[in-house]
Amino acid sequence: MSYIKTQIEALRIEIKHHDYHYYVLNQPEISDTEYDKLYKGLETLEKLHPDLITPDSPTQRVSGQAVKEFKTVRHSAPMLSLENTYSPEEIKEWHIRIAKILPDKPFEFIVEPKIDGISCAVTYTSGILTMGATRGDGETGEDITLNIKTIRSIPLSLTLPEHTSAFPRTFEARGEVFIDKSDFNCINETFLNKGEQVFANARNAAAGSLRQKDPKITAERKLKFFVHSFASLNSELKFETHWDFLKTCRNFGLMTIDKTKLCKTIDEAVAYCLKMQEQRDKLPFDIDGMVIKVNSLSQRETLGTTMKSPRWAIAYKFPARQATTKVINIRVQVGRTGAITPVADLEPVECAGVIISHATLHNFDEISRLDVRIGDTVLIERAGEVIPKVIKVIETKRTGHEKKVKVPEKCPECSGNIIREKEEEVAYRCINPSCPAQLAGALLHFAKREAMDIEGLGASAVNQLVEKKIVNSFDEIYSLNKETLIELDLFKDKKAQNLLDAIEKSKKQPLSRLLFAFGIRNAGEKAARTLAENFITLDSVIKASAEDLTNIKEIGPVMAESIKNFFSQSKTKTLIDKLKSAGINTTEPKENIPKGGIFSGKTFVFTGELKTLSRSEAEKQARKLGGQTSSSVSKNTSFVVAGENAGSKLSKAQKLNIKIITETEFLTMAKKEN
Ligand code: IVH
């Protein structure tokens, strides 16, 4: 028994280590498959020995039943808010005020991004996470411990820092629960596909996810947590500065805010705030300002707090990114899948330094939900570099002359029919396969940075190439020449050459990007990477059965069907032949494939009749352990697994001197790893 206990504890430590590297440091050390193996190993042992389960076991992140209501909890010390400032002058006024209280000692400042998330407190008792609570009214909040436990960047137990003998009896860290912009976009995309109401911004998505009564739903939402302050420090934890506090938090295994800076003067602090204002769109999460904090904790004590906020800190809020304006028209755009997206043309309005003249309305269900009409005054919001959204209609501004809009019957680009393919789908689509707008959208997607990365092939070039029927499919991009490009008038000699160079360079992109560039329905960037990592060559992806596809953890039946459907079309087959003759790379380079697994770097060919496994099961087994599979023997083949009646592949392997093994030998090798 004690051996099992030791084994369980070792697995927990290992999983915790990898959780920290993956979720806190964003530097995974092992592949997902290897992680899953550790996790499943722990789960199995705990199932056999349920008495050994502890609340801080990684398997206990999603535990407990859905609750009807959250319990109320009183905070150990009030959760205050910050005083806001809106200009460098106001920040300097704050500095003058605090310098009057503490005239002789210069201040050092910590400047942190102000995360646009949900304020929460997490309490550790002797190193174990025992409570997670929302801010509520500042005095009392809600007990959301079960939901907090699902957040992977919050350790269930702290790590004991070096040279420390014991955990503090209680340690209450305060911070912000938030969701990265990319994860927020994924949630909204899923909701849109399911016809559900989308979240207006990442903050609302984080709030909605955190307050789910069922922790299983919260667990799916990829929430994160940054520590930014503490309740009050007990005698066991003594820090001189906020900087030290943040360092200890990191040593405990908690996540502190990226881009936090120690500034020696208020001018340096102001300059940093303004620099981050410029860079806010480049951060992976939303921030709505910066927080300037006095670093020295003894200086903080002297400065004290008012009823509502500490005197030792101030928020610098970035200019608002919302504005009100009038809807002049509502028109539709046709995307690469034929989906019709309504767009509101607006009376131009300034919003945080940018003039906005249109906003997306997502789909016609969204128009009904907002009840937005032509002529309405609306509130818009600009988040990041994406197209602004309409948040709500200001109904008090209605005159009665506003006009409702209907779903168009014909595509505005090609007059093709517009239908809703399935009752449960939100999107209406133009179903004309030769619609030029769809082709233009598909080409733009093919060329974009995350796909084939063809710099210079932007909207205006693509529209012209489509309109003049010069490019009618992806492969025709690769037959473009300088004369044609210059004739278009869009390109001068140098620009044309740059584009041709970018096109040439794109031929070397890895398979994962090519798969993403195809724009297969329901298969996004992550799915493309998964496919490439698992199948290595385009031919293997094409040959994969629906079962081979769904055998991969991240690929569900809907995605598998879309992938099969895409590759079974004769149009796709012709396209791939043409892309191959243009010299496009169709494999995933080794360095992109996560290391790990006994078969990593090895290629297997299965031939003949296998006794215990089907061909696809055997291939799956090889891939699961990090190997690659292929249907043909070449000098790159590592092993040929030969069953009964093996024919030409076996003789080719003999000729090339490739190692030939039996099915039993293959299974023995695989077992060693399992
Ligand atoms: S320090 C007042 N630092 O902004 C207690 N707060 O009104 C000390 N916030 O709800 C807070 N990012 O949760 C601090 N880097 C940061 C922050 C931050 C976001 C939130 C905080 C509070 C609100 C201030």
Short description:
With about 675 residues, the chain is an alpha+beta fold. Helices cover about 35% and strands about 20% of the residues. The model has no long low-confidence stretch (mean pLDDT about 90).
Count of spatially separate domains: 5
**What's the overall geometry?**
globular
Percent strand equals 15-25%
Main sheet: strand order: 2-11-10-3-9
- CATH C-level category of the largest domain: Alpha Beta
What class would the helix/strand composition place it in?
A: alpha+beta
CATH superfamily of the largest domain: DNA ligase/mRNA capping enzyme
**What share of the residues lie within helices?**
25-40%
> What oligomeric assembly is this protein in?
single chain
Characterization of this structure:
The protein is an alpha+beta fold and 674 residues long. The chain contains 24 helices and 22 strands. The chain folds into five domains: 2-60, Helix hairpin bin (Helix Hairpins, Orthogonal Bundle), CATH 1.10.287.610; 84-317, DNA ligase/mRNA capping enzyme (D-amino Acid Aminotransferase, Chain A, domain 1), CATH 3.30.470; 322-397, OB fold (Dihydrolipoamide Acetyltransferase, E2P), CATH 2.40.50.140; 436-590, 5' to 3' exonuclease, C-terminal subdomain (DNA polymerase, domain 1), CATH 1.10.150; 594-671, Rossmann fold (3-Layer(aba) Sandwich), CATH 3.40.50.10190. It is globular, with a radius of gyration of 29 Å. The mean pLDDT is 89. The structure holds 2-(butylsulfanyl)adenosine (IVH).
